[in-house]
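Letters spell out the chain; the tokens describe the backbone. To illustrate:

===
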Amino acid sequence: MTQTIKVSIIEDNRLYTQSLQRILELSECMEFQASYSSAEAYLEDLSKKTVEACDIILLDLHLPGKSGLQLIP
């Protein structure tokens, strides 16, 4: 039995996020979890514990506000 890889997206470009989401939904071994348009939105959900655990985060490094590089630690 193959384990599904859970993926979240943090990206401010809505069209790019939608494209990535469609690709993930076509994959049999990956599952789209959630998307965020900013690091701050992700951190807010993380602090409220409303973020589901995921295996991979597709992270834009050039986000408005807090950058993806600042989010990594």
Remarks:
- The chain has a mean pLDDT of 91.
- The helical segments are 14-26, 39-48, 68-71.
- The chain is about 35% helix and 25% strand.
- The first helix runs from residue 14 to 26.
